Write the C-alpha cells for this entry.
Amino acid sequence: MDELFEAVTLVETGKITRFPIVLVGSSYWGGLITWLREKVLAERKISVGDLDLLRIVDDPAEVVRIIIEAHAHAGTELDHPGSNGT
C-alpha cells in the first residue's frame, strides 16, 4: 500500500513522469477503491482526478494494452500531471 500511494502521489503532484498505475484483480482491489470513493473522496481528502490515476483490470491483455498505449503517448499528455492519459 505504501508503494502504491507513493506512486500515485508522485504522479499526481508532477514529481515524476506520469505512467499507468494498473491494479490487477478487481476482486482484490475493489474494496480499496470503494473505500477511497465512499470515504476519502466523499470527505474531500482527494479529488476525482486522483482516482482516475488508478486502473483496475482483470485481463492480462488489458494490462498489456494499457502499457503499450502509455508508451505510444510518451512525451505527450502522459507526461503532464493532471491530464487524463488513461
